[in-house]
Design goal:
Strand content: under 5%
Number of domains: 3
Structural class: mainly alpha
Bound molecules: flavin-adenine dinucleotide
Distance between the termini: 24 Å
Largest sheet: 2 strands, antiparallel
Order of helices and strands: HHEEHHHHHHHH
Radius of gyration: 22 Å
Shape: globular
Number of helices: 10
Length: 253
């Protein structure tokens, strides 16, 4: 359902801003997977845009027969992104600050990792990461931070570390109001990038409670619920959009 809605609510150009590709937008369907192809594992906006442009051109002009070539390209760039985030000035977010040496050092680091069987730096969405690998990745990203900070992470039990899939809803139009309504993540789940999901759910509860008090005072229940839903869809999906925007620009993955 979400996959179908994404196709309707996001144009090709919107998907560039939101950090993903829908292969259905190009009439390309692969047997081995669905249409959605996430690029948020690339934290530098310039790199993500370059990869999006490459995929866009490839899907328009020479669509591959499976998602394999696209996944391989993404995986390499996720590694580069994680490397730049940890090692380059300013996390590699300004490409003008990068030099040939950064790329040479990246290749040397990849060789070293392959040679010694070290974990990958980046989190490729197709590759499940164990708690130990997630811990190693976090520590590498914290290199140069205060030792107390890295100690907190290194003392964690790897068995207690797990990845969390971040999902976002898409705005929905008003539906026919009846005695059942929605609030919180059930209607406007959002990325935790700006930490307002629970806050928005609490706001729903407050607004809904006020409308129910009005219903108790004689306002027709359906009208009261409709007023709540109209208000909630406004600020709720504003928060969804703002969170998605910040996910795309601020979060490393
Ligand atoms: C990593 C992360 C960080 C976050 N950080 C922040 C933050 O800093 N600030 C902030 O405001 N928000 C934050 N959020 C978002 C916040 O957690 C959610 O928006 C909020 O919990 C939503 O509340 P809810 O009551 O709508 O849903 P939930 O908290 O998901 O509650 C739904 C409950 O229903 C239960 N349930 C599900 N199905 C059934 C069923 N069939 N029968 C009975 N029970 C069922 C579930 O077990 C759950 O307890 C974060 C989210 C994540 C993932």
């Amino acid at each position: 359902m979400l996959a179908c809605l994404r196709l309707v609510y996001f144009t090709r150009q919107d998907t560039r801003d939101a950090g993903f590709i829908e292969t259905d937008h190009y009439g390309a369907r692969f047997n081995d997977s669905g249409s959605h192809f996430g690029l948020l594992g690339l934290s530098q906006r310039w790199l993500r845009d370059l990869v999006w442009d490459y995929f866009d051109a490839r899907l328009r002009n020479q669509p591959p027969r499976s998602q394999g070539p696209l996944k391989l390209a993404r995986r390499s760039c996720v590694e580069l992104s994680a490397y730049l985030e940890a090692q380059a000035p300013g996390g590699g977010h300004d490409p003008r600050a990068l030099t040939e040496e950064h790329m040479t050092a990246f290749v040397a680091d990849q060789r070293h990792r392959a040679l010694h069987g070290l974990p990958a730096l980046g989190h490729d969405p197709d590759v499940g990461m164990s708690g130990g690998r997630l811990q190693a990745m976090t520590l590498s990203l914290l290199e140069g931070w205060h030792p107390r900070m890295t100690e907190i992470v290194s003392r964690q039990d790897p068995a207690s570390i797990f990845p969390v899939a971040v999902r976002t809803s898409v705005p929905v139009a008003a539906w026919e109001t009846d005695a059942v309504t929605l609030l919180g993540d059930a209607v406007h789940v959002m990325s935790p990038a700006i930490g307002v999901g629970a806050n928005t759910a609490l706001r729903d509860a407050r607004v809904l409670a006020s409308r129910l008090v009005e219903a108790a005072d004689g306002r027709p229940l359906t009208a009261a619920l409709r007023a709540y839903e109209d208000e909630m869809r406004g600020y709720g999906f504003d928060a969804v959009r703002e969170s998605a925007e910040h996910s795309a620009t601020k979060l490393p993955s």
